[in-house]
Amino acid sequence: MDYQDIIKDWKSNKFRPLYWLEGEEDFFIDQVVDYAEHHLLSEAEQGFNLTVLYGKDTDWATVVNACRRYPMFAERQVVILKEAQAMKDLLKLEAYIEQPLGSTIFVVAHKQGKIDGRSKTAKLIKDKGVVLSTKKMYDNQIPAWAEAYVRSQGLGISEKACVLLADHIGNDLSRIANEIDKLKVNLPAGKKIDEADIEKYVGISKEYNVFELQNALGMQDMGKVMRIIKYFSANPKAAPIQMVIPALYNYFAKISLLFGVKGGEKEMASAIGVHPFFVKDYMAAARKFGPDGTERALLLLHQYNLRSIGINDSGTEDGELMKEMAYRMLRP
Question: Is the four-CA dihedral 94, 99, 100, 101 of positive or negative sign?
């Protein structure tokens, strides 16, 4: 069951006494918690029947006492335990979990990890309630997720705009969702988001960004590469080196995979996890760099990543590091 299934059940008035939300992806947990806090009860019911507790500020006895209360002037009450991972004696909730109150919806947000699945508590949770276990998305999953989120907000998005957004922000789903929400406010319903919209409302230049730097490197266009890096140097917040290097490493790692793939564009797109719309660009870059050039690029990225954090470097500015690295990639 994913977070959307839980919310769908709630909208259909299907409730369980316990919802245990855990794992590494905060966004999915936050979506469920936010819905529970603001939509499971009417405003009139919330005053007496909504309790929100924080793990670092509460204890198991307070939580259990809140859960064992009966609702007032409502069919059910909602108890939310946020930051459960910070609560001491969390496993002492086991006695309540074993016999939960049917009129209480108890939502536990346990971020940044999971409880031991072999423990008695974990087995009780699965038996008595619903478990949402979240994982961080891989970088190659982000564009598809962003596109789906855009559609859920009544908008469309071009392939290039979607990749531009994902490449710039990375796998921070909360931030991607916030930027899409911002676009929704500023654009008419049904609008297909393009690069100009991303530039205007998100603040990512459609000409000078990591996505365009990748393409320029892939085409071995030294002039364009240096223009983009010059822009980055003048606008360090637009693309700090700590964001640029991982993105380029991911790009060349995908190119390296192509050398072992048999088949056409469809098979290659699937193998490296990119939209078929872009696979031709990767194939062209693979032809230009070849296996040896691609391996050299990956080694240079590793080397300059170390230099960017002060290892084997005496303080070279980020812009100069990027220029030097790009030059060595294209002029070995």
Answer: negative
